[in-house]
Specification:
The protein is of the alpha+beta class. Helix content is 25%, strand content 23%. The chain contains 18 helices and 31 strands. The radius of gyration is 27 Å and the shape is globular. The structure holds dioxothiomolybdenum(VI) ion. The site of dioxothiomolybdenum(VI) ion has 11 residues, from loops. The site of dioxothiomolybdenum(VI) ion (MOS) has 11 residues, from loops.
Length: 786
Amino acid sequence: MSDTIAPQIMPQGAPPSAAKPAIGAATSRVDGRLKVTGGARYGSDFYGGTNPAHAYLATSAIARGRITRLDEDDARKVPGVLEILTYRNVGDRIKAGKIFSQKGYMGTSIAPLASDRVQHGGQIVAMVVAETFEAAREAAHRLVIEYAAETPSATFDSPGLKVDSAEGGSREGEQPGEEKPKVGNASAAFAAAPVTVDQHYETPTQHHNAIELFTTACAWAGGKLTVWESSQNMYGFQNGLAEQLGIAPADIRVISPYIGGAFGSRGSLTQRTALVALAAQLVHRPVRLEATRSQGFTIATYRAETRHRVRLGAGQDGKLQALIHEGWEISSRPDDYKVAGTDASTRIYACPNVDSEVTIVHADRNTPGFMRSPPEVPYFFALESAMDELAVALKMDPVELRRVNDTMHEPIKGLPYTSRTLMPCFDAAAQAFGWSKRDPRPGSMRDGDWMVGWGCATSVYPTNMGPATARVILSPQGTVKVQTAGHEIGTGIYTVVALMAVSGLGVRIDKVTVELGDTELPPAPVAGGSNSTASIATVVAKACEQVRDRIARAAATAEDGPFHGMDPARLVLADGMLRAPNGVSEPLETAMGRTTNGAIEVYAENIPHDVPKEGLKKLYQGQSAMMGGAKMKDRIQFAFGAQFVEVRVNVRTREIRVPRLVGAFAAGRIVNPKAAKSQLMGGQIWGVSAALHEATEIDRRAARYYNDDLAEYLIPVNADVQEVTTIMLPEQDTQVNDLGIKGIGELGNVGLNAAVANAVFHATGVRVRELPIRVEKLLEAAAVPT
Ligand code: MOS
């Protein structure tokens, strides 16, 4: 297949059983067949043409200092080497950009190969271009690089850290500087509260480790650049790269039809893309880079380690009187990346006195970035562990503690929740789990050699939505093409878009072709903040309605047709027919044949009413104009869930097993329950991963990662995750958007890490406040006597 033509991204026909699906009907993925047959083309499947040169990165061996010697002689002798990019020949040819959360496009503000300065371990220090991947790799290993190393600051407690006091309130894609959540007098209320918890919690560094590696292919033709790179923000890549290279965005096309896992790691530009583009210019042919798994740990972003202090004060009735959440987050030396999860963690429970503080701690590390539920995963580990500790201190059931603190208004400004189905989620999950049979005493539930523990926690995720555009083309034959530059990060957006066309135009799903993943298509927002379904479904529905309206108005005015004189607003498209309320109908093709000249093509834009008009311009510029969560002026909008976990801890070895997960979630209207269930289930499983397995280990002296490969970066296998129950509760929300869609991409993995920790406490009496919970932490501590 050639890469220079548009990729084939048309979904194949759906099976007959799915011939007439609708919004809310469990529907198999329209791209499922392509995916299982290898027909779906991921970013890494593109080579930029038939004869690409191959690039290989060399990365720094130190975390802080300067390159003192860079000898290319040996490397240049490798047969097939075409070019070697270093700071000497790149320098200022590629501009630095701002990071995404500060209205830029980058994952780091460090320009690639700009100088001899090294600012983190594994920073790109050279890129070799050669005839083959093997030659490029060989040459990269033959580069002789010497450094003047300075002592790096690796992480918390390292010497030489730079500490910033940062106001809370920064969310994905938004400027920092909002007021930090605070109300009442929290420290006085905490001091006066009859029952208190004051604890510190810690979450580790984690890397996304998507199966698809970080690859890029670039080709120039007639002054125009095409980039094939898996992306969660194609328009952002286009505009950011244009800034870096000093060319017009219109001269860059980004193609990304399928994405082999992203989780936030492909939302901002890495340094590699501009380097590959420059290399392709220098060698006058397409260049294709494939970074190694281990390089992926330092050339892209990651979830940084966090620390928390949570203080909860409550009355004997369990009602919160004080909630103080302080967070500390690692960022890089130059960048202010932060997640500031206090924005959500202070607004979930009723409490008259709330305070919060988020502090950025700058270390000599690559800049962290978005990773699935960036703020909520670490901050709700802390909050929901503390809530469990409070329940223990109160001798109250943890579900009941959530119930007495349930609220339809967030406590900071008193804004109403658009909908909140938290306690029904707890009740549904508790019932499915058998929670009523729980003996609350830690260590009381035994099964032979296994200490059994049951724990639970709240899950939340803000409901976001941004401007979006789409084009819908209805052919005279009744086939539909929908085009929007959305991102298929595995969540099933091809199917969501197809379902919207099915429901909007009354056609069968196998008549619908969906095109995504190309900057030649009308822009859709960054696939982040779980906004894609709400944003894209809304604009596709709007475009389809405009198509229907054109057909209906033409039909109502056609004197030779059966709809003449009828109210076009009341004509509907269903089952391949145009129908009137009085029963008159005719096939869509007939109606179109008589009333329209050929295909109907509609381009639609949607700007959510909370988003300023310039949001559309930002969309075209690839910047986030999303609104939602706790950022709204008049309301607060979140999706909710309840996570329940059974753990078993071996009395002798302290081996931890998780035989059961039960989650119940409510997230407004679910467009495709089949894909949504998988998505939530994947989140639950990731929660187990975060609780028990995942951590990127840091060499504290060198500020470098130890376990930067899939052999040593632990993730769960089938034996680690056994029974998973995922319950979706119906929820109607008329305020979040016209369709009532909240989004579920990130909800499933929030809170589960705390539910596991709470279950481990219940099993053993040992409270582990630093993730991940591994055998050794239960051995060291004095667990329940055997
Ligand atoms: Mo997500 S971390 O908002 O891609």
